[in-house]
Amino acid sequence: MSKAGERIELRRVISFRSYVGLGLGAIIGMGWVVYSGSWIEAGGPVGAMLGFLVGGLLLIPVGLAYAELTPAIPVAGGEIGFSFRAFGPTAAFFSCWFLAFAYTFLCPFETVAMGWLLEKIIPVIQTPMLYSIGGDSISTSSTLPGLLLGGGMVAVNLLGVRASARFQFVTTAAMLVCVIVFATLAFARGSFANFLPLFAGSGASTAVVPASILSVVVGVPFWLSGFDTIPQAAEEAGTDLRPRLLGLAVMLSIFLGTLFYLLVVGSVAMAMPWQQSVNLDMPTAGVFRAAFGQEWIVRLVLGAAFLGLLSSLNGFFLAATRVLFSAGRGGLLPRWFGGIDKKRKTPRNAILFVGLFAMGGPFVGKAILDPIVHVGSLAFAAAWLLTCMCAIRLRRAEPRLMEPHRLTQVGVLYVGAVVCTAVVLVLLLPGSPEQLQWPSEYGILLAWFAIGYVCHVWQVRRGGMSPEEQRYQILGERPVSARMSGPSRR
Questions:
Q1: DSSP3 helix / strand / coil % (the chain, rounded to 5)
Q2: Is 262 buried (19+), middle (13-18) or exposed (0-12) by CB count in 10 A?
Q3: pLDDT grade for 479, boundaries at 50, 70 and 90
């Protein structure tokens, strides 16, 4: 058996409010500015709101699994530690590689969106097209903002997790203030008559109502993804933070995220008749220009979208780097990913790796990245499913580990597993409207796992760890021999 080496640890400084900001900021993003019209068109105002409400309720069992496991196993990379403890290194690798895909490739999607958003806010900055990929125009004005944003995100995260956490809290709080302002105006000056008809579609209400709700529910897991960024940074919780508060931050993020989307849909529906608003460009901003003629409100909405983009990018960036760092430290991927800045205790190498992806996104544009986001939805659902199974397994295998943090009956965890399985099947079953496309999206998925397998095998053959050392590196539990050889307490 190889002797356990020193375990690299990250600085413990994140507060409870910063964890809530991390989860909520990652959930919100800026998609609500673009897609609110699509939600209302698919379900009608009340159908869309009920769709988000039902979707949020369905995610509660999943959130409870995270809320139990995160304080019980507070390590970097979250699900890597959960799956390693419950099922061993193979499950930990699959969990790691699913999450690495989902988080890493969401970063370039955000940097691509930055250029597009700034061109909407300040049209005068638009420059001529340089080239086109998949029908998407690439120009200096669409590329430079995302490139600068990616570089800025690398700088913020290299400064330390305290800087990243503060940045997350400030941007999320400022965005929520903007949203509350324009929502208040919508409810004060709008009309509930604009909600009619309450649901989309035609025919008997017994068929229209569930169809309207279901058409929105299927997409809710993607829009509420982000609460799972909290366990990725659980190892960096402040020393005075009670472990149970990590679980509370997870659940609070889901609750506030659901409430946010209900508020946005309600505001858009109140402002003007929804049959008109769904045809506007960026409905969440367009309705205020069309209904009230208030350009400052439009700027406020776009400003909130800008802040949401920053918070979601920072949240997913932080999560991606912790997953890769944990996998490198634990020998699941090349040890290079486990390198840190010794002064600031930040995962330097993982930050640089994810930063390259983020800064490369603007050069390929939305056309190439859209399929990646679809595959990312599958990656999130698979990771959630594995987490629910880990919670069920550890309830039986290590009841003492889970007992102090138990929040619900084991049956609820099975419900979470069923919900996640349903999402995975919707993305994989032939004939499903959300099925991954062949060969593009299935090809991306297979290529990603081929790369991961090669990296994993290379690391194992180059210098694999003993089971005891790997457990120590991933979970922080010292091998028995190391504990016995320590200083005597007598």
A1: 75, 5, 20
A2: middle
A3: low
Distance set, CA 233 to CA 96, 239, 315, 479, 484 (Å): 14, 13, 10, 24, 30
Of the chain, the end-to-end C-alpha distance in Å amounts to 28
Using alpha carbons, select from 35, 31, 30 the residue that is nearest to residue 281. 35
Q: Which DSSP symbol is given to 137?
A: E
- The residue extents of the domains of the chain are 16-476
CA 266/CA 465 separation, integer angstroms: 54
pTM: 0.91
Task: Kindly report the backbone phi and psi dihedral angles of residue 346, in degrees, each rounded to the nearest multiple of 5, phi listed first.
Answer: -110, 150
Residue 299 to residue 311: CA distance in whole angstroms: 18
In tens, the pLDDT along 223-241 reads: 898 999 999 999 999 999 9
C-alpha to C-alpha distance for 114 and 105, rounded to whole angstroms: 15
Q: Which of 426, 415, 383 is nearest to 57 (CA)?
A: 415
Per-residue CA distances from 194 to 97, 143, 182 (Å): 46, 39, 17
Q: What is the DSSP string of 279-297?
A: TSSSHHHHHHHHHH--HHH
Q: Does domain 16-476 have CATH number 1.20.1740.10?
A: yes
* Amino acid letter for position 8: I
Distances (CA, A) of 177 to 21, 24, 260, 301, 474: 14, 14, 12, 11, 39
Note the Cα 426 to chain centre separation in Å. Answer: 19
